[in-house]
Amino acid sequence: MLVEIDDADGVRTLTLNRPEALNAFNEALYDATTVALRAADDDPAVAVVVLTGSGRAFSAGNDLLEMQARITDPNFESGEYGFPGMIETLTALRKPLILAVNGLGVGIGATILGYADLVFMSTTARLKCPFTSLGVAPEAASSYLLPQLVGRQNAAWMLLSSEWIDAQEAQRMGFAWKVCEPDDLLPEAMRHAKVLASRPVSSLMAVKQTMVEPTRAEIAAAAAREYAQFAELLGGVANADALAAFADRREASG
């Protein structure tokens, strides 16, 4: 199962379960995550959603081999929802979303933090937005959400540099609300989730609606700008070179 689902006391925990690929998102995982998020949002017994990863990664971002296939394979088939469907689902989510970032978060594994209501990070977790190192544009409306979340300069460094930031730096910047020892991460996230889940679901959704609704049109507009830039750069010289280098490294190590 690509997304494991557990329910307890009004909290639904979704665990990305592709550990052999560091929970990198391929089309199947985008679809499975989208379906799981929508089901949680529609289930009246669920008050709060927690998203985490299995193994040593939260998510290594887009599956780069699949990204290369998208460019080179004329028969490449997109998923039912894919990346756009998951982003639309995160934007529309009515219930509180808590992220428990258990390990490395790359690309969408980092930009997804912009959709969270609370972020808990393991002391061993790290974040990176590798867009410039891949010769592409930002994604997931991060060009809008990250400046909103952490300020213009922190977001600029994150999106322009393709450098890692550790959990302590992520908390200082404002990406993470709390940093926990690895064994304490999920218990702490769950403890806070259960506090929220003890409140009326209708009230939780009303609070989130009033906070998030003013940003939804801006998120959609930012995503549209990013898709246009991404489409222009995908398969260009810088991107093709970066993907070929990744494939070569993977082949050499495998």
UniProtKB/TrEMBL annotation:
It is found in: Peroxisome. Its main location: other. InterPro entries: ClpP/crotonase-like_dom_sf, ECH/Chromodomain_protein, Enoyl-CoA_hydra/iso. SUPFAM superfamilies: ClpP/crotonase (SSF52096). GO terms for molecular function: delta(3)-delta(2)-enoyl-CoA isomerase activity. Keywords: Isomerase, Peroxisome. This is Enoyl-CoA hydratase. It comes from Mycolicibacterium madagascariense.
